[in-house]
Write a structure and sequence with these properties.
There is one protein chain. This protein is α+β, with helices and mostly antiparallel strands. It has a single domain, classed as Aminopeptidase. Helix content is 24%, strand content 36%. A five-stranded antiparallel sheet has the order 1-2-3-4-5, with helices on one face. Strands 6-8-7 form a three-stranded antiparallel sheet. The termini are far apart.
């Protein structure tokens, strides 16, 4: 069995583990949205397959950006690692932050992400235009599908 650094905060799942990499407190710079950033690793290894983050809060910015973001490195795609990471983040959100509802969004043309969100049993609230003042719009993401997840 591998030994991990004693200060590493690892959340173990059956397929992937999340390793906390950075905590950002809410401030005026980030619209008062605290965030926790994780590396996604194959279970019980140091093989990093992607990254994800949990954004804690409920405001207009997060309605379009979502409470969870994820990215799986290209060579590891197609293995449902984003799905597994999101399931772990659901537990963290509920147990550590008492969050009962999350929003995750994707661009309509991002078929792999849409499949992940549907596999997580999200409820599609709407497909909507992102306000031109939002940072997503500024980087070219002008339309989002908004999915809701109730954490019971």
């Amino acid at each position: 069995m591998l030994r991990f650094f004693y200060r590493e905060k690892r959340i173990a799942g059956p397929v992937v583990d999340l390793v906390e990499e950075k905590v950002v407190k809410g401030s005026a710079f980030n619209n008062w949205i605290p965030s926790i950033y994780y590396g996604i690793y194959l279970h019980n290894t140091h093989i990093k397959v992607g990254r994800c983050d949990l954004r804690i809060g409920d405001n207009e910015e997060l309605y379009y950006a979502g409470n969870i973001g994820y990215h799986v490195f290209e060579k590891y795609r197609g293995n449902h690692y984003a799905y597994e990471a999101c399931r772990l983040l659901f537990d963290v959100a509920k147990k550590e932050h008492q969050i009962e509802k999350l929003i995750i969004t994707c661009s309509p043309e991002n078929t792999p992400s849409k499949k992940t969100l549907l596999r997580l049993n999200g409820k599609l609230l709407e497909t909507t235009v992102v306000p031109s003042s939002h940072w997503l719009y500024q980087r070219g993401e002008t339309v989002k599908e908004i999915y809701e997840y109730l954490l019971n």
